[in-house]
């Protein structure tokens, strides 16, 4: 109890230090007493405003004889009511393009997806979540002829009454993902873009469940910056609508003072669902931190003042499953999946051609990748379908180099993941039980979603347990047993005190015989981009039945109802040549 009181006082102190900013404080005690006095008048945690009138009073607030928030009485304010009978065609909007969600709409487990890591939550009104700002695969909007990238900064919730209404109707919950233009000249005037997501009453939301449970077990009422451990957020799965990405776009403002009119709004049409019990947590958290607060934190609807609202039809959603092992991806408008240079393929060892006869690739040099010294550190793991290790730090040592056309392309390993029970590639028509893919990207174009990739495929046959997989799986099960991580989480560190979870490609992945098949192919998941130089090693490592069982357990605990196998079916060769290297040619 004592520690709880200390926590609360600390939180109030932090809250009110905002309200009294600019005043000099002679001692902590006087600040605290002043804080208590102000709390009585201003039950909300905000900068001298509250939700008692849902913002109706903000334009009139005075400080030192002047209007405190003049922008709040502007003519382009948010939120608004969205009348779906009066939506405009995007082509009639001048100066603002549709938003390209890019990595925001790609599963964070993919190389070009965005995962928000190192998340922290404020157990305050609105449960604001902050995180490390992603640097690549950012969404873009063309504004006034200039394409700007937008960095997600934070997200928060408006509960019991959504801020925007659609045809006059409030939803019980609205999420705002706040994004700021990358590298602005001045943060105070930077262009902002906000994504609004509605929730209707229904099933409990799995992400909100994870967020609320972790926040409540790690923090106390009113705490700021509650660590969510290795908790990370996959925007496409956790925050965006499930299937339809249609949204309403318009020019508006911040919905809290100063109400700056520099926001491109994107309010999505399809609602996610939230349960009554989950909404109750929002009110409990708010009232525990601020007993006199209004639980609703929505600003009243603002006049449109002649502004237009545009309807942007949803891009085809990148969500996919393995129910048909990818056979359906060809028909579902999933980008390149119907192309002629697709992966995986069957590798017919008797037909492998000499690597020296390959016209576009004249040499492959593993360099330090094939040494004990090439250690990948700072790794995080996704504990879900197809367990993936994301390599954190730039590796020391010489990166592998492939001469493609006239250019020596240097490749940096980004991640490794496994396909289990059925390998993706087959060798002479036969599947292996396990295939690892080490994904490497052109080191000079890491931020380009069309940048050249090179993937190393490693096969495993049944036999002795693989020591590296044993170590990884033990760390995962220990941390799950201790409650430090949960199934389905991504961005998890498996480091133990004094025993970091590092990866050495040579010792942990490469077989002793380095013969491999090389060919031009694609990503084996949507968007199936045909940008991959494949290197499938032909000598398998070994994996035990018990290790395979752990992969299945992790998948089913993370995605109940998922197909455990995550292989795309074999694709037609369409006349491509497959080459043999290091003695593997026929
Ligand atoms: Zn908001
Ligand atoms: Zn793969």
TrEMBL record:
Domain annotation Alpha-carbonic anhydrase: ranges: 47-313, 318-582
Entry superkingdom: Eukaryota
A Pfam family assignment: Carb_anhydrase
Cofactor(s) the record lists: Zn(2+)
MF terms (GO), sorted A to Z: carbonate dehydratase activity; zinc ion binding
Gene3D superfamilies attached to this UniProt entry: Alpha carbonic anhydrase (3.10.200.10)
CDD domains: alpha_CA_prokaryotic_like
InterPro entries given in the database record: Alpha_CA_prokaryot-like, CA_dom, CA_dom_sf, Carbonic_anhydrase_a-class, Carbonic_anhydrase_a-class_CS
Catalysed reactions, semicolon-separated: hydrogencarbonate + H(+) = CO2 + H2O
Signal sequence residues: 1-22
EC id: 4.2.1.1
Major enzyme class: lyase
Keywords associated with the record: Lyase, Metal-binding, Signal, Zinc
Renumbered residue ranges of the record's region Disordered: 27-47
Keyword Protein transport: no
Family recorded in the similarity comment: Belongs to the alpha-carbonic anhydrase family.
Role: Reversible hydration of carbon dioxide.
Protein name: Carbonic anhydrase
Native organism: Dunaliella tertiolecta
Lineage: Eukaryota, Viridiplantae, Chlorophyta, core chlorophytes, Chlorophyceae
């Amino acid at each position: 109890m004592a520690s709880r009181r200390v926590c609360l006082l600390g939180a109030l102190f932090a809250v009110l230090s905002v309200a009294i900013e600019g005043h000099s404080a002679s001692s902590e005690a006087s600040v605290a007493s002043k804080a208590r006095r102000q709390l009585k008048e201003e039950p909300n945690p905000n900068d001298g405003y509250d939700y008692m009138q849902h913002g109706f009073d903000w334009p009139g607030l005075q400080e030192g004889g002047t209007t405190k928030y003049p922008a709040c009485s502007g003519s382009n304010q948010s939120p608004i009511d969205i009348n779906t009978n009066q939506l405009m065609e995007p082509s009639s909007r001048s100066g603002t393009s549709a938003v390209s969600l890019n990595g925001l709409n790609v599963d964070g487990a993919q190389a070009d997806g965005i995962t928000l890591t190192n998340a922290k939550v404020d157990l305050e009104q609105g449960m604001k979540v902050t995180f490390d700002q992603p640097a690549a695969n950012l969404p873009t909007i063309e504004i006034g002829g200039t394409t700007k990238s937008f960095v997600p900064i934070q997200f928060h919730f408006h509960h019991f009454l959504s801020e925007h209404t659609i045809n006059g109707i409030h939803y019980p919950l609205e999420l705002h993902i706040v994004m700021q233009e990358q590298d602005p000249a001045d943060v105070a005037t930077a262009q902002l873009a906000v994504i609004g997501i509605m929730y209707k009453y229904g099933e409990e939301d799995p992400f909100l469940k994870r967020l609320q449970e972790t926040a409540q077990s790690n923090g106390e009422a009113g705490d700021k910056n509650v660590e969510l451990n290795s908790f990370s957020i996959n925007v496409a799965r956790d925050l965006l609508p499930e299937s339809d990405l249609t949204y309403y776009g318009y020019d508006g403002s911040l919905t809290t003072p100063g109400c700056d009119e520099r926001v491109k709004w994107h309010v999505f049409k399809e609602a996610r669902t939230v349960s009554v019990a989950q909404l109750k947590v929002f009110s409990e958290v708010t009232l525990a931190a601020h007993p006199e607060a209004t639980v609703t934190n929505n600003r009243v609807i603002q006049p449109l003042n002649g502004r237009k609202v545009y309807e942007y039809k949803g891009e085809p959603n990148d969500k996919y499953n393995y129910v048909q092992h990818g056979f359906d991806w060809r028909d579902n408008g999933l980008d390149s999946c119907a192309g002629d240079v697709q992966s995986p393929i069957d590798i017919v060892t008797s037909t492998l051609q000499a690597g020296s006869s390959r016209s576009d690739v004249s040499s492959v040099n593993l360099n330090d990748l094939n040494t004990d010294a090439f250690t990948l550190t700072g790794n995080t793991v996704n504990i879900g379908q197809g367990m993936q290790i994301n390599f954190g730090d730039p590796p020391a040592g010489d990166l592998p180099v492939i001469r493609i056309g006239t250019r020596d392309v240097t490749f940096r390993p980004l991640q490794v993941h496994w396909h289990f029970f059925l390998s993706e590639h087959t060798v002479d028509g036969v599947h292996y039980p396990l295939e690892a893919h080490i994904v490497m990207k052109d080191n000079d174009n890491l931020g380009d979603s069309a940048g050249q990739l090179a993937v190393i495929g490693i096969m495993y046959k049944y036999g002795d347990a693989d020591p590296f997989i044993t170590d990884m799986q033990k760390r995962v099960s220990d941390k799950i047993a201790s409650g430090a991580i949960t199934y389905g989480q991504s961005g998890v560190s498996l480091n133990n005190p004094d025993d970091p979870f590092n990866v050495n490609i040579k010792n942990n992945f490469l077989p002793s015989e380095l013969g491999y098949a090389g060919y031009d192919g694609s990503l084996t998941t949507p968007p199936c981009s045909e940008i991959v130089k494949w290197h499938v090693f032909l000598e398998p490592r070994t994996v035990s039945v018990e290790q395979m069982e752990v992969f299945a357990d992790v998948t089913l605990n993370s995605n109940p109802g998922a197909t455990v196998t995550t292989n795309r079916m074999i694709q037609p060769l369409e006349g491509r040549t497959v080459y043999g290297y290091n003695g593997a040619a026929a």
